[in-house]
Amino acid sequence: MKIAAIVGSNREDSYNKKLALYMQDRYKESMDMDFVAIDTFPLYNQDEEHRPPSPVQTAYEKITSSDGVLIVTPEYNHSIPAVLKNAIDWFSRTGNPLTAKPVMIAGASQGPLGTIRSQLHLRQILNSPGMSARVLPQNEIFVGSVQHKIDDEGRLTDQATVDFIDNVVENFKTWVHQNS
Ligand code: FNR
Known about the structure:
By secondary structure, the protein is an alpha/beta fold. It has helices at 15-26, 54-64, 82-93, 116-126, 159-178, and strands at residues 2-7, 32-36, 68-72, 102-108, 134-135, 141-143. Its EC number is 1.-.-.-.
């Protein structure tokens, strides 16, 4: 199963990037996860949407050829970071590779709520008519207090969190099969 992974943080030492890398390694037997760079997208401008810049085109091709998409997002001021919203706005106006695509959402934060508010916003955005992605229902991956659950090598050390993610990923694989 080919999965395109989008990380909503452009921070070098990002916990969300570490979570995505951990998932890439842990599920490598069943999911071939390829990262889609969005932090090189220019700021969206409607004047430019008929000639999308090359990072947008590259992302479009990776997402289009995938069976499903993983979006791992931080929470910024109770919503998604601008870098992720910028990418979504580009996608929505340039053929929208996310339309009808099975999507799994995950997120990590240092606070206790583990990006719950940004994930709710992200679901709302992905369900808008311009996006129409098929977001995995009833399952989300929230990792709160992440600084205490990940070691220096990027391994998740909290077994309950690992079990929780294993379960959601199994449900996502079924969701991908049902929607492809
Ligand atoms: C944050 N952070 C944050 N955390 C949270 O739980 N709720 C929030 O609303 C916010 N808001 C917020 C705004 C801005 C501008 C920044 C920079 C940070 C903290 C955030 O969860 C923390 O910095 C994470 O480590 C960011 O994710 P990455 O970059 O580590 O993946």
